[in-house]
Design a protein that fits this description.
With about 180 residues, the protein is mainly alpha-helical. Helix content is about 70%, strand content about 10%. It has a 3-stranded parallel beta sheet. α3 (about 60-70) crosses α5 (about 80-100) and α3 crosses α6 (about 100-115). The protein starts with a helix and ends with a helix.
Length: about 180
């Protein structure tokens, strides 16, 4: 294969993709190794490659974590071992939800507050997301893996708002 032929062509490789506040596990390892190999292979072939780690960082499961942290969280444990503590909180709140299903409603309400731009909710989400990324970067460094972009489900929340506004404006112009 002629590497010059591929010059200027762009490829995106999305791999690893853990959920924030949860431990990196064997399922992520497989995807990480294969994705990293494909990224390097395509770069060697002359492609411009963008490596993306698309995180599970949004949705009701995050609402559960936030509700759980309000109930079971500990700032000192969070500083000491953030992923372990957040995962323990997540496991505990799910156990609580088995006994009290209204916790799921509270989690949906919390997530709705985030979507509506609640500053406090978004700050906590950003804190957990940043802590998770830092922990993942530590693991990736040991594996000699790097990403060009850390993206995630949360990216679509803002994009959806923009697209909805465009559609509304377009609809008003037709009237």
């Amino acid at each position: 294969i002629n590497a010059e032929y591929m010059g200027g062509k762009k490829i995106i490789v999305e791999y690893s993709s853990p959920n924030i506040a949860k431990p990196f596990h064997a399922g992520h390892l497989r995807s990480t190794i294969i994705g990293n190999f494909l990224k390097h292979l395509h770069r060697a072939l002359g492609y411009e490659v963008i490596g993306i780690n698309y995180l599970g960082d949004h949705g009701k499961q995050y609402g559960l974590l936030a509700i759980g942290f309000e109930k079971h969280g500990n700032e000192e444990l969070l500083k000491t071992d953030p992923i372990k503590h957040l995962y323990d909180v997540y496991v505990q709140i799910n156990k609580d939800a088995d006994e009290d299903p209204s916790i799921h409603d509270k989690a949906r309400e919390y997530f709705k507050r985030m979507e509506e731009g609640d500053k406090k909710a978004l700050e906590l989400w950003q804190k957990f997301r940043d802590m998770s990324i830092e922990e993942y970067k530590r693991i990736y460094k040991r594996l000699n893996v790097e990403f060009d972009v850390y993206s995630g489900e949360s990216q679509y929340s803002e994009g959806m708002k923009i697209e909805l506004e465009k559609k509304k404006k377009k609809k008003k112009k037709k009237k």
